[in-house]
Design a protein that fits this description.
InterPro entries: Disease_R_plants, WH_DNA-bd_sf, WHD_ROQ1-like. By secondary structure, the protein is mainly α. The protein is built from six helices and two strands. Helix content is about 70%, strand content about 5%.
């Protein structure tokens, strides 16, 4: 069932989901929005769609969350992808968190 919800997303939404699953859990939604925009995602409605699909949550403190099973599914999907993109994004995220 979880994979079906993911498979129904557009390619951009799938990438956004995977970026959130790997890099953004526990972060403030405003920071996540800025980061995802910098990575080329169309965030204006993206996070809302992921929330509506029950793939991502935003708690009362405005922190991004995700069920552990969904996060593990995202990690499993990423294992089959080239690591260069993930490494660049991880380095960018570290830079962003240090200097903002």
């Amino acid at each position: 069932m979880l994979r079906i919800s993911f498979d129904d997303l557009t390619d951009d939404m799938k990438e956004m989901f995977l970026d959130i699953a790997l890099f953004c859990i526990g972060m403030d939604q405003e920071d996540v929005t800025k980061i995802l925009e910098d990575w080329g995602h169309h965030v204006d409605t993206g996070i809302s769609i992921l929330v509506q699909q029950n793939l991502v949550t935003v708690d009362p403190m405005n922190k991004i969350g995700m069920h552990n099973m969904l996060q593990e599914m995202g990690r499993g999907i990423i294992r089959g992808k080239p690591t260069a993109v993930a490494n660049v994004r991880y380095a960018f995220l570290r830079f962003y968190l240090i200097y903002h």
